[in-house]
Amino acid sequence: MSDASLPPASGAAGASAPLDGRPLGRRSFYFWFATLVGALTGTLTGLPLLRYLFNSKRQTTDWITLGPVDSFTVGEMRLATFADPLPRPCDNGAAEASVFVRREEPGQDGAAQFRVLAIACPHQGCDVVWSDESGLFDCPCHGGVFNADGNRLSGPPPRGLFACIWRTRQQQLEIRAPFFSPAFHAAATDEARSE
Ligand code: FES
Fold first, then answer.
1. CA–centroid distance, residue 168 to ligand 1 (Å)
2. Are residues 166 and 89 in the same domain?
3. What torsion, rounded to 10 degrees, do the Cα atoms 178, 81, 72, 153 define?
């Protein structure tokens, strides 16, 4: 048997498997080993983030029914409560969420119009309270005040109440969820505009 038919001889001590015909040195071996370990670690630590991003995208497509369109009276501010689409594990599936709904005068085409506002104060997330008497929303935590359209009037909140994306479908009022954080709100708004 000639030498050409024999497997390549192993190199000097410390060399590893050959690449493109040349033995892989000890330093190259450690370099590639470290790269592989780094890639695996990065993948594993990045999985929660990927899961979060995937879930965020999926959740923006959820629509929640608040009730028949005709159950809302024009000009009346009403608290609408529904099953929380983002319950925490400690809620045991029994969590509820709420939004404020005011039916507006119909549009020029006669279609029902609504203003749906998140209940969470944009300052630190406390639930705002509506007062029929003053026609204002008050935040009990730090004194934020908003008008009936959700615009900020005073206090530490950096902006007005978040408006929810809504639609009417089969004579039902629906809102898109989630709607609590600015990031979700911006994403949901962009999606609704592109539909
Ligand atoms: S949480 Fe509403 S004013 Fe601070």
1. 31
2. yes
3. -70
Decide: 116 and 100 in contact? Cβ < 8 Å.
yes
Nearest-CA residue for ligand 1 atom 1 is 124
Q: How many domains does the chain have?
A: 2
Q: Which residue has the higher pLDDT, 131 or 63?
A: 131
Given this model, what pLDDT does residue 129 score? 97
46 pLDDT exceeds 70?
A: no
136 CB within 6 A, ligand 1: no
Query: What's the pLDDT at 58?
Result: 47
Residue 97 falls within a domain, yes or no? yes
Is 121 near ligand 1, meaning CB less than 6 Å away? yes
Cα→Cα distances 40→26, 33, 35, 139, Å: 21, 11, 9, 47
Ligand 1 proximity of 160 Cβ (cutoff 6 Å): no
Residue 41's domain comprises 16-58
pLDDT at 190 over 60: no
User: How many other CB atoms sit within 10 Å of the CB of residue 152?
Assistant: 19
Q: Return the ligand 1 atom nearest residue 121 CA.
A: 2
**71 assigned to some structural domain:** yes
Q: Which residue has the tokens 């370099």?
A: 31
Pocket probe for ligand 1: among 117, 119, 124, the residue whose CB has the most ligand atoms within 8 Å is 124
Q: Are residues 87 and 168 in the same domain?
A: yes
The mean pLDDT of the chain is 77
